[in-house]
Amino acid sequence: MQVAAAPAMPEEYSQLANEAQRLSVNFRFQHGSARLDNKAQRDIERVTDYLRQNDKLYKRTVLVGFADDKADPQRASLLSKLRAMAVRRELSKAGVIFCDVTGLGDEMPVAANSGDEGRIKNRRVEVWVY
Description:
The structure is a single chain. Helices cover 41% and strands 18% of the residues. It is of the alpha+beta class. The longest helix has 21 residues, at 73-93.
């Protein structure tokens, strides 16, 4: 999917929006966790199949991790990076070599952080491909 760059986006995210496309899959995580669940394991297979079929296994993929704003900003930043690294670890087993793996902490929420449902949506890792 195409994502339009916006002035409020962090610079590195805006650059991704201008140059790459985001896959529709989002890896979700429980509060305070960077562990992949069973659904995430199935999504790993789907993403790997897509990357293989579209010749994007080698330095064509970027992972961006996020956290909700319930934690302090430094913890959210670390947790978002750990989440992206957890996805990287599993995709690497299938032969994916990445351009970049980053964490943006609690920036760019996709839902309100006022309730559990919104916070769950914000604890995610996005997959971008060039």
